[in-house]
Fold each of these.
Amino acid sequence: MQDIEMIVAVQVTQAVFSLLLAALLLAFLIAFKHRFLRHWALSCLAMSLYLASAAALTQMLAGSTPDPQLRLLLSMFSQIMAYLHVLWLLMGAWEAASDRDVPRPLNIALVTMAVAIGVGSSLIVPFDEQGAALRNLIRFSLLHAITGIAFAVTAVMLFRALRVAGSISSYLVPLAFSGYGLYMIYLAGASAWMTLNNALLGHVRLLGLGGFLLQILIGYSIVIWLLEIERRRALRARSDAETAQQRLVHFRMHDPATGLPNRRQLQDQLATEVSAATIKRNRVAVLAIGLHRFKLISQALGWQETDRMVRRLSVQLRQRLPADATLGRIGDRDFVVILPNVGSRQRAIDRCKEILGASAEPLVHHGQEVFLALSGGLCMAPDDQIDAVALIELAQQAQMRAVSSGQALVVHQSVRAARQPHDLIRLEQELRAGVRERQFELHFQPLVSIRQRRVTGFETLLRWNHPQRGLLTPGTFLQEAVRLGILDDLEDQILHQALSQLHEWQNDLAVPTVTASINLSAQRFQQPDLPGKLAELCEQMQVDPHDLHLEITESTAMQDFEAGLNTISRLRELGCKVCLDDFGTGYSSLSHLRRLQVDYVKLDRSFIANLERDRHERDLTRAVVDLIHSLGMTVLAEGVETRQQLGWLIQCRVDVVQGFLLGKPRPAAAYRRALLDPQLIMRAAAPERTRATAQSD
């Protein structure tokens, strides 16, 4: 009797442990999404039910007069669970080893077969006293042998799948499964010997205890294995993140088609050269080179062939440059050359004419000569300017004058310094009058949610309705407003107009929630009382702060990083959403991005420009989007101008898009219809998008 009680106690203990292991595997399945854990959790659950019903059956048989029908039903349930345990064990092992799902029709067929075997084995001479030995051999010995073989097969499959990993679990997991398989095979032999000899082995009490210990070993080995998988996954993700960041840095500083330095790297290089030239009392020449008839060539040859031609032209230009010169590309048809230590102005002019003349030689394309006419604009530091950005702009302006005048090279002529104070005073008077007379107004560009397929918000863009010069964009006056100290008053007007318009949308139109995005200057963002002012304004204008999105650039956030973190935290506590604007044009550090904890990240339009023709840029954009998503942030892409770009952005899993394709900056009244029918813009952009989204990388 004590032996029976011992067997029942061990079976109940094993059943409880199997149930706990099933719950643990289910938790791992939810957390880590490993598909094979589903079948192993079911296998452990079936094993728990089998052991519990076997314990109940053993206790029942130890009684005086067990009910035959109840005994049969309990035996049938026990056998079904045992064979399902074996089946789900093998299915999970196959999925773990092959990283594929068992097809659903096959899954159903195998489960049906296991149930049928369980029912059939329990119906063999169920009530015949003379058939007790046969019943024991089928229900216990055969079942244990099949279970042991299943565990041994599982051990072999896992060993083959894990041996390349070279980790602890690659040996521990197969060892644990094979140990339990040998234990079950030995149990099958012991059970058959006891049945045939009608005797009880002396160590029968230890058999159950050994199985329990092996169960614990299997559980621990699985946990160690899953943790190692996650550790390897985390290391791989970190490596991918670092690789993507390196690619991002390279992409941020180089032109993707030619590999030449882009505008940003040229500006950094030029700033360094100008600083060195100032100390040495020398000159730095900046030559802007424009390629004529670029649109005609690209239409005739196609984008890919045009890129090849531009690469060949860049090689030809580099061959004509001095060793210390830097060649970069700042646009589809625009190159910039930095020439340090040029000496006199006339020497610099002569050198640039030589470069343009020698580079005008025709390029051979498929046996035919293609003539690429070039024009140049030249300026010099420190004669004309010392700021790198201004120098490149002056050179480009001179190059455009060369195009309009038909000359090969135009040299920038400096504006007399005597006129600058007068012009600045006049501009200040006009700006102050504009603020006082409320000549500044907001235009709105729609933000479209890819998932919701509707307009969910608008970015506010400033315009100056100048009495004489018409509608002006911020590029013509904003820097001067900063220099003259007018920006604060101007931004106050912007905030009032934006919140007033947001209040009007939310109260006068029966539309879903619409947000307004406002660009904050570095000066405004650094003000300690910014969150308090915004809270007062939102309360005054009766606007929910959750519908107010505030855009800051990377450089703004990085000016005082710790103070920026505090400001962002306070803005988010208020309810405002914070968006990091122009991501990819500044520091672009993932560690900084993770610490900033913004809500949105807006990709710079440089990510979008070449999506249609460059697979590597699509891969890079998708990697960056995935990384931003992994930080719990929403991705917004600006500068969407074609349906093909929109299609690729959808494939890259971008959340929100904006651009001329979906709507140009216009007064609020122009988008009233789009708000009343929020999906109107998305439907207009959709028809020709299908071709891009149907393609595969």
Amino acid sequence: MKYISTITNLFVCLAVALMFQSCKDNENNNIDSSALTLLSYTPEQGGNVATEGVIELTFSKAVRQAPDTEITINGKAIRVIITDNVVRANYSEPLADHVTLDIPEGALTDMNSVQKYEGLNLKYEIKLEKRLYDAVVDINGNGDYTSVQKAIDAAPSESEKPYLIFIANGEYEEYVMIPKKKNFIHLIGQDKDKTIIKYKVTISNEGSEQNPIAPDKYLENPWTYSYLNPANNMSSEQCAVMVIFGNDFYAENLTLENTWGTGHKTGPQADALCTRVDRIAFYNCKLLSFQDTWWVRQAKNDLTARNYADQCFIQGAVDYVYGSANLLVENSTLYNIRTGSVITACSHYEGTLWGHVFKDCVIDGDDTAMSGDNFFGRPWQNAPVELFINVDCKIPMASAGWQDMGTSPGLFAIYDVTDKNGQPLSTDGWKRDYNVGAETVHYDGNFNLTEAEAAKYTYENIITSPDGWNPKAFYTTEKLPAVENINLYGTTLSWDGMNKAICYLVFDNGKFIGQTTETTMEVDVNGENYTVKAVNKYGSLSD
């Protein structure tokens, strides 16, 4: 019986094993070994799409994303939504001109990770939607507002795309503030010499009861115009003609003028501009005052804030570009209006990436600046960084280069700077000992950058990196040519259209009369000299 029982158990085990193998064979036979293929996708390749939407792909069977792989849109990793055999990629690219979906080979597989998809790259052009400026400011009443601040107040909060405001020629006497949540404000002036935002404000208690001054020191009492004066009912934010708290600000063809500085050509502090956040750009603008024209301000816990100015005119005499944020000024004029002018006063915190960089600029000035020596700057606080690269000095610069202030330099240096005679500027006599409190601190840094060191200070490194912010594109790669074939037939003005124009501005003898998305406008037959400007998607004007 013992042997019979043993044989029986062996037969049972063999039967179970055969049944298991049979089930396994059936399971293997049910695996779909067909190739993983793409059946269809929408929108069609090469078509135009909106700035936000979804790209949908349908596969021959259920898919999943393989571990440790990335699917990207415009180079940025995204999280796709997969339902069985359908893959959806949502995108929002309000500032881009294209949408590129990249699925690398092997990033998608079947559910058993056996069949790998070969990969795909789809590119779409973003359809340019015709649109008017969101607001037009015109002192003559031909726009939506006669006040720049009222146009800004009407802008949406926490926007993720440019809010376009056009400002017609005129003098707008007002304080302007871009609030913290008003991102992507684009202020576009008609003409930098004729579109002027001006205000008279000082940042001083001189002339107050607490700080009396000699009656003849100033033509007017600065305390009368101080934001510190309770009688003016101003907040601590109102320290300049324009103060910017909103990220992604852009201005073009504007003048910001503090009329205390330009009217008196003397101190105290009278800022034309104060910038306090990241991604702020100016193109073809003028900043005018005497002392502390542009305050490039930055919080100690934010060392990455970027400011950019291209083809601008910055005027002053005392510390007229100052502060702690990163700043790149290119192709611009630093215009001095006093003998012994001091251009900069910086106060960068330890760890600041770039400091203040003036590149491909001209240092110039009026007759008073020409009559005596002038200074590149002085160290205000912390660890200041000031660099002048490829700069042409048209006025005499002091042999000491720099002055004392409150600390010693972190880095003060130049590369390829020429003097008023067109010769390489010598740094042999530059100041190395700085009075800091009761002590003298020696600066051991090299005043002359090497070619390799200077090569690091590029637009791409300072401005574009690390997030791809590229304000130069607003008025260079996206710049529109002059409008052609402007003709008047009766009361109908017509012109040649442009594919990349969102709208057109029409002027009569330089006076704004209207905007349209069409290529015609009904006008006064008695008009004398009609001109038309095309507008790109950033609000920038054509030639």
Amino acid sequence: MKRRRTARTKRRRGGRLKWFMVLVLLAAGAYWAASELLPSREHAVPEWKGKFEKPIFVAGEVMDLPALDNGEGLKLPFSVIQSEVDPHVRYEEESKSVILTTQRKLVWMKADDMKGKINNKPVQLLFAPVEEEGELYLPAYLLKELYGIEVHEDAASGAVLLYRAGETIQMAHVQTSSRSKDATVAMRQDSSIHAPILAEMKPGEKLRILDEADDWYYAQLDNGYAGYVKKKNVALDSLMTIPPLEQQEVPPAKQKWQSKVVNLTWEAVYNVAPKPSSIGELPGVNVVSPTWFSLVDGQGNVKSKADRAYVKWAHERGMQVWGLFSNSFEPEITSESLSTFDRRMTTIVQMLHYAKLYDLDGINIDYENVHTKDGANLTQFMRELWPLAQEQGLVLSIDVTPKSNSEMWSAFLDRRALAEVSDYLIVMAYDEHWAASPVAGSVASLPWSRSSMTRIIEEDDVPPSKLIMGIPLYTRVWTETEEDGKTKVKSKAIGMKKAQEIIKEKSLKPKLSEKTGQNYVEYRENGALHRIWLEDKESLARRVEMAKSLQLGGIATWNRSFASSEAWDVLSKIAE
């Protein structure tokens, strides 16, 4: 009997233990379930808190550097403006020069100097740029005027919220269904009720909606705090749009011009300027570009061969005059003249002076044979010239080559950026085969010319209407001789009239080359083979049709003196 009670007791104890374990598991499960359902009450502080007195936020993201001062004296870091507002702001450390450019404004300032220049006119700044701990800080009031940015400063947290011109922000406010006067809504670090709380927000507090994820909004408060808020606790208000930058009106004369298709011809001026009376009529041509101006030294000085009589002649015939300014194809003086703001401005001021003195309608920039390292400085030169040319009502164009790997003739050109700071890019769609080419070939075959234009349109996003296709009015006579079992090649450039004289003199019959889209002739003389890919009325007609099919801004021909009389009638079809 005693043994039986003991076994029964053990069975009771075992049963109780099992029930106890079940209860423990149930309690644990209930606690786990409750913890999964209950929101976290843990609080967290943003990483930026305490790091900066005046943190800057762009689209909810805190920047690496803070702002300085406040109110009208607020200053923003150069690097933040460069990364978030204008990647082209420039600081030249040697002279401590700050250069800011827009389509209509060129602003120059120096660190710790209240004197500056806007469009090369002296101004007294309200606040000077300052340098602190190796970073340059720019006056916000000037940045607002120039770029149309807006800033919101929060007095309590010191936060500076930066907005760009044209930016649209969805405004909202906090709401809750609770009737408690002390009710708050949590802003959390992540889109989960288990994420730590960044802020306890009261109903009615303003929010800026930055993004959304499922049932959550990613939003920002005036004090800079940004985090996730349940959508049910947010009421959307109106959209706030930062006013876009006002587009200044284009001068009437220039506006009228921009509706035209360009038919330009370059006037090559060497030692003696051509007498206008000797030129004759140029039917269809609406722009002449004489090669009058050239860079003469590393200080940026300009030499002029301009002729008032030529301008008067062109204007009387309804043609505009875009004076060509070249770098003389001298890479070293080009490098020096582009290296500093002062030297670039020397060139710009002189060119604008000549434009006014000779009543020019535009300036055509022709920089060739340039070190690749100087490409960015050339683009900066154009950025600085652009607003001043606009102010003077000048049409600004720059000559570019087809894209290639050539360092000195192509790689230095940032065609995408140059298109943004000029009215036109004139693509010199020649020389496919250049003077010293090791093999004979066309100066500009039709397929190659088309490819030269379409690559810039497609790869650099340049609108076709901003592109003018350069057309050669010359060709080359290629001479091939056999020496030691190898073909030796040399060439000589000739104009259209000279090519026709050779054909007549040698009784040649041109044949169409399907590969080049041009007529071709060859003949033997003195043991050598002479080959010519012709520029004639047929090839010019195809080029005009190409320009029209690509919807280009026009054509430009190099150069007037190479043309035959029939060339102008064919080229005039560009306007039809």
